[in-house]
Amino acid sequence: MGIVNLELPCPRNIGGIGVDPDPDWSFDALVSELNALEAKLSSSSKIPVPFTKEKSRNFSNGKTLGRSSSPFVMRISEDEMDGIESEEEEVQDKNYVAVNRFNFDELDLSESDDSDGELSLEVQPYLMEEVGLVEGALFELTLEHELRVKDEIRNKISALETDLLNENQKYNSALNRIEKYREARRESERKLDTQYQRKIAEALDNHLTAIQRDHERKSQIEERKIRSDAAYEEAKRREKALQEEKLRQEKAKAEAEAKLRAEEAKRAALEAQKRAEKEAAEASNRAADAVAQETSSETRTISNLGTEDAKSNISGYEKTKKSPSAGNSIVKAAESALKLEQERLKKCKELDEGNQTLRLNPNKDLSRHERNISKLIRQITGTRDVVWGKATELVKILNSPEFPKSISVAVFAKKVVSHGESPGSAAFACAYVIVLVTSQIPLAMDLILAEFHKACIYTVPKHIVYSQSAFESKDAYYKTIGFREDEGKIENIDDYLKRIEAYMKLYGALVQTEVGGVQNLHGLKEGWAWLARFLNTLPANKFTAVALSAFLRTAGFGLFRKYKSQFMKMLNIISDHFLNVLKAREDSTMNKVIAEIQFYIEDKQFLKEPEGRSLEASLLSSIMVPKIEDRQSYGYQQSRDYYY
C-alpha cells in the first residue's frame, strides 16, 4: 500500500522544539528525546511551577495493550476514501474529546510512480503488506506507543498555553492594581494640596489679624501716652505744691528749733549760776575740816580714781572686742580705697534715709515701679538692639516725674547689682547697660559702686583678717566679710565663693566696657587702680584668689590693650609672689583657683577677647532700636558698628 502523511493541527516548532516526532524513531531514541524535551521545557519555562511527570513511562507487554481513549482522525485525499473517512468520523465523533485533529492531506496508494492515473483501489485489511502475527503485534504496539507519545505532547502544549494565559491574566491584574494605586496617589496629592492651600489661607488670615492687633496696640499706646502726659502735668502740679508745703514746714521747723535753742541756752545759764553758788557754799564748809580730813580724803580719792580707771579699761577692751574695725591690723585695704568706700556708702545711706519719707506717700505704687525696673534688667541679653533698647527704657523710667528720681535710681542700682549674682546673667551686657544709663544719670554710678561694696568687700578692694580678740565668734567674722545667714545658719564657703566670683565678674566687665561716644564713669583707669591696690594691700588666700581670678578673666583683655607692658609686669608679680604664697599654704581646696590663674597667665588668655564682650547683632534689626533723640543723647554715630 502507499504511504499516508499525517499533519498535526498546530505549529511544527515551538521554541525550537519539534512537536511532531519522527514515527520511524526507535523506542529508546523516542524516550531519550522526550526526557530531553522535558528537561529543556523545565529549565526555560517562565511558569513558576516546573513540569513534572504524572506517571511513569514504563510500557506494558503486548498482552496488556489497550487502545488510547483519545483517538486521532486520519484523512485520505483519494476519492475512494471519502466514504470510509465519513464513516470513521461519525464513529469517532462520539468519543471525541477536546483534542486537536491530525489532517492527512495526501494519501498515496499507488504502487509505482509510472501509473497513468489508474486507480486500482482494493480494500485491503492492512495498510502494509501482510506480515506475521508477531510482526503485526509489534507494529500495532509501536503505533500505539507513538500515538500515546503524541497525546502526551499535545497535553503538555495545552498546559503551556493555559499557563501562558494565566500569566497574561496575572500581568493584566498587576497593571490594573498599579493604575488604581496611581489614581489613589493622585487623589491623596490633591487632598494634600488642598490642605496646604487651606493652611496658607489660615496663616495669611493670622498675619492680617496680627497686623490689625498691632495697629490697635499702637493706638492704645498713643492713648496711654496722652493720659500719661496729662498725669505728668498733674503730678508736676502736685510736686510743686508738695515742695511749697515742704519748704513751709522746714521754715516752721527751723523757727521752732531756734526758739528751743534759745530756751536751752537760757536754762543752761541759770543752771551754771546755781552750780557756782552751790560750789562756793561747799567750799566754805570744807575749809573748816581741811586739816583733820586731809589724809583720809586723799586715800579715798586715790582708791576711787583707781576703780574708775580699771572700769574704763575693761569697757574699752569690750568695745574693741565687739567692734570689727577696732584695730587697723585686721582691715587690709588702701587708705584711698577706704575713703572712697566711706563716701559712697555715706551717699547711699543719706539717699536711703531721704527715700524713707518719700515711700510713705500712699498715692505712689512703688512696688509696681520696682517690678518694672527689675523686669527690664532681667530681660537684658547680649545683643546690641536689646542693650540699647533696655538702656533707653531704663533712662526714661528713672527720669520719669511720676516717681521720685532718688527712689528710682536707688532701686536700679540695687537690682542691677543683685542681677549679677543670678546664674546665667549676661555680665558684659549688664555692664553696657550700666555705662549707658550712668552716662545720663551720673548719680547712679556712685550708688551702684556702693551696692557693690555692700555685696562684696573685694570690690573695694578690702579684706578683714580674723582675730579672736576682735570678733566674738567665727560666725560674727563670717557675717562681717559678707556671709549670709539663713534661719540662724551661716551659708557654706562654696556658696560664698560663687557669689564673690559673680560680683567680681560683673565688676570686671563694668571697668573694661567702652562704648563709642559714651563716657564710662568707672572705666579702665579705676580697674587699674583696683588691681594695684589689691596686690599692694590684700593677702593671698582662698577668698582673694577667687576675686582676682574672676576680675582678670573679664577685665584682663581690656587692661592689656590699654597698658600693655605695665599689665604684663602686674601678671609677673601675681605669678612670682601671689601664686607662690597660695601654693605654700598647701591647701587642696585652692588647687582649682591656682590652676585657673596660672593657666590664664601662662596660656596668655588676656590676648583673647572674653566670650560675650562683643555684643551680637540682632536677627531682627527693627526690634528695640533706639530713637533718633536717644541715639544723639548717647553720642550714637550713624554707623551700626559703634562698639569696640
Automatic annotation (TrEMBL):
**What keywords does the record list, in alphabetical order?**
Coiled coil, mRNA transport, Nuclear pore complex, Nucleus, Protein transport, Translocation, Transport
The protein's location, in the record's own words, is: Nucleus, Nuclear pore complex
**What's an example Gene Ontology biological process for this entry?**
protein transport
The segment annotated Disordered runs over: 271-307
Q: Where is the composition biased (Polar residues)?
A: 293-306
What are the protein's GO molecular function terms? inositol hexakisphosphate binding; phospholipid binding; translation initiation factor binding
Primary residence = nucleus
Q: Which GO terms describe its cellular component?
A: cytoplasm; nuclear pore cytoplasmic filaments
InterPro entries found in the cross-reference section? GLE1 (IPR012476), GLE1-like_sf (IPR038506)
Coiled coil where? 143-198
- Leader sequence range is none
Q: Which family does it belong to?
A: Belongs to the GLE1 family.
What is the protein's given name?
A: mRNA export factor GLE1
Upper lineage ranks? Eukaryota, Viridiplantae, Streptophyta, Embryophyta, Tracheophyta
